[in-house]
Amino acid sequence: MNTLIPFKSRAEAIRLSRALSLKRIANTVINTPRSLGVSCGLSVLFYSTSLEKVRATIGELGLKTEQGVFKR
User: Fold this and answer.
1) Residue 39 — pLDDT band, cuts 50, 70, 90?
2) Sequence-separated contacts (24+) of 35-39 with Cβ below 8 Å
3) pTM for the predicted model, two decimal places
4) Is there a domain that residue 51 lies in?
5) Which of 24, 42, 53, 72 is most buried by a 10 A CB count?
């Protein structure tokens, strides 16, 4: 897994992870690396090949606290 999206809201990160798992999209929730300097929350880590599906799922769920997409 090489791509992550940090969230300000821990609840939104967990919601996204659960939704991705239901869609059988490999992911894991991690503490946001401090080196990103964007949040002290959680990040969802996934393969870059799933980025469009992840973005679509964020839209479907109406998540608002994502802070960008970063390569790991």
Assistant:
1) low
2) 36/6, 36/70, 38/6, 38/67, 38/68, 39/6, 39/7, 39/8, 39/67
3) 0.90
4) yes
5) 42
